[in-house]
Amino acid sequence: MTERIIIAGSGGQGVMLLGKVLVQAAMLGGKQITWFPAYGPEVRGGTSHCMVVVSDQEIGSPYIGQADTLIILNRPSLEKFKSRLKAGGLLILNSSLAGFKGAKGLKILQFPFTDIAMNLGNIKVANMVALGCFVAAKKIIDPDNVLEVFKSMAPAGNLKILEINRQALKEGENLNHG
Amino acid sequence: MMNNKKILLSGNEAIARGAIQAGCGFYAGYPITPQNELIGYMSNHLRDSGGVFIQAESELAAINMVYGAAASGARAMTSSSSPGISLMQEGISYIAGSALPAVIVNIMRGGPGLGNIAPAQSDYFQATRGGGHGDYRLIVLAPDSVQEAYDLTREAFYLSDKYRVPAMILGDGVLGQMMEPVELSVKKAKMGDKSGWCLSGCQGRQPHVVKSFFLREGELEKFNLKLQKVYRRIEEKEARCEEMFLAGAEIILVAYGTMARIAKSVIMRLRNEGKKIGLIRPVSLWPFPREAFRAAGRNTEYLVLEMSYGQMLEDVRLAVAGRRKIEFLGRSGGGILSEGEIIDKIRSLIRKPGGRK
Fold first, then answer.
1. What's A52's domain CATH number?
2. What residues in B contact A34, CB-CB < 8 Å?
3. Is A83 on the interface with B (CB under 8 A)?
């Protein structure tokens, strides 16, 4: 198993963090991982992305030409990366900020991650709703390991932050994955 | 849980942590992408272990501060990326000419000139031939993973101290930026004794002199011959490489750093099809691991892969000395060879055995 994932969105939407949480949860599950960020002059409001590889074997290039999965949080990122999804690949799309009419041979999961996050009370956790969606759709990462990573990352004693991220992940997992 | 001893680090952070773990007592640097996390980590953490951090006003200042710190006996280090390393060449030559240990990290980006910030391997000549003036060498180590970046940084300090020759860690933007799991060492750094030559205050003893200036007739030649002797010893003892599937290989890929990772993926794919493909991955670029090129069978060909237009290629030619065919594939200026491009090239070599010049 080797899963190549491009995660993209607007600077400020937490796409780097989404990738870091994903790879650390995969690490806890005994997987090999690489995480490779866009490191140009990315700014809040522009596009930003990271490339994540999760595998049972040693990983060669951390750079991804054709991805197995795209996790896309806004429209400019969709335009930039939609051609990078391989045939039969999975597109996880934030329908609050972008829409995509079905293309042949792609699996598409569109949900309003931003709206779901706002309903939870914090727009910043839209990234973790998307992560939950990925975790449930691909089943290569144990959601319990994601919770472990939350615990290790959250500021000590800030249970509110931990709880809302936990809720966001759960909301994402519970979306209908067809 | 597996992997629970490992933590997630970028290559840049791993180099910084490896340096601190190796007892680095002085760091000076000037920011440049794609190695900023390295100087960033040093600015936040070097003081905690009793070291001195300085953000210098320029790369020239940084390398000359390293020169001074090394002369005073500290384990000293700087880091930069290609254009910044070019600016440091005078200082590096002076450090080599003063027989001082120091560690210089180059996280390469696209060139020439200001180039861009994309990963590249086009500073190989500069690193291995001595980018400054004079007959000198750097020990050059090229990690291909974040774990190795951590390990080889520590090694660079030990080798540099052992031979009093500056050492360079040569990585690229991918290696610096990429995050991977790393197992940190808990071993305490071994500090060598430098009291015989370093500038530590000469009360009660003869003054030590550290200089790269030898004006009296014959003096500089004598010093150079001493350096050459050290370089020969390093060539004998310190060449290192990783070898994969060399026995019976029809094509041996030669690649270092990031390019070697991609080569390894290619090898795994093609060996599953029964193709006899091997790999030589030089870990030390100087000294170049020449011996690894002696074992190849009569019909073996080499395919050198680089993120440059053929720089390590020259060392492979020197090592092979005309005995085997050598092919080359490279991209630079931000281009990275994909597995597909390499496989296409290999298939074209297999299709017409012996049919090329």
1. 3.40.920.10
2. 178-180
3. no
| 8 A C-beta contact, residue B108 and residue B172 | yes
CATH class of the domain defined by B243-351: alpha beta
Tokens describing residue B171 = 């990585």
CA atoms within 13 A on the CB side of A53: 21
pLDDT tens-digit profile of B244-283?
999 999 999 999 999 999 999 999 999 999 999 999 999 9
Chain A residues near residue B179 by CB distance under 8 angstroms: 20, 23, 34-36
Cross-chain residue pair B180–A40, CB shorter than 8 Å: no
Cβ neighbors of A145 (< 8 A, separation 6 or more) are: A25, A26, A28, A29
Domain count, chain A: 1
Which of A27, A36, A37 is the closest to B8 by Cβ? A27
Q: Print the domain residue range for A73.
A: 2-174
Q: Residue A45: count other Cβ atoms within 10 Å of its Cβ.
A: 11
**Mind listing the pLDDT tens digit for each residue in B87-144?**
999 999 999 999 999 999 999 999 999 999 999 999 999 999 989 999 999 999 999 9
Separation CA B248–CA B255 (nearest Å): 19
Q: How far is A170 from chain B (nearest CA, A)?
A: 23
Report, at the CATH architecture level, how domain B7-237 is classified. Answer: 3-Layer(aba) Sandwich (3.40)
The C-alpha of B266 sits at a distance from chain A's nearest C-alpha, in angstroms, of 8
DSSP B232-255: HHHHHH---EEEES-TT-SEEEE-
